[in-house]
Amino acid sequence: MLMKLLSQFGLPFLIKMVRSGLEKIGGDTALKATEALSEVSADIEKQKISNAAVSEANRHLEKMQELENELDNNTLSQIHQTIRQELNAEDRFVRFWRPAFGYSVALAWLLMIGTVCYVVLSSYPNAETIINALVETTSLWSVALGVLGIQVVKSTQEKSNKK
Hints:
163 residues; mainly alpha; 7 helices
């Protein structure tokens, strides 16, 4: 989103936004950077920095936006290909594993957080120990992510075989 704004408004806009953000931060380094950006902005206005140089910087920002858009399009294409392949699979489990997996992980998370909320709100004497024990749920989440990883590897192999 930032790149889209920059490609529309250009370098002077970027300088103004960064300068206003740095002014709010304060401190010596931010103050020096604010002064430097003010000088650059003044040089652009007085045309000490040529319009060609500013245009080149803006062209660079536009090119960066194009590259970012291309990356987003490639990512979405891969996601859509995977989902289409799962929906068209003959195996019922392959078609419905993702929603089932999502619901089961969401239910586990809801139960865990609901328990923690109950323990905290009821002033349970061992609440601190229970909250610290959440670290032990790492294995639960690692198994869940492991299942997801196995499915990603399997679907990648299936995509490669279809090509």
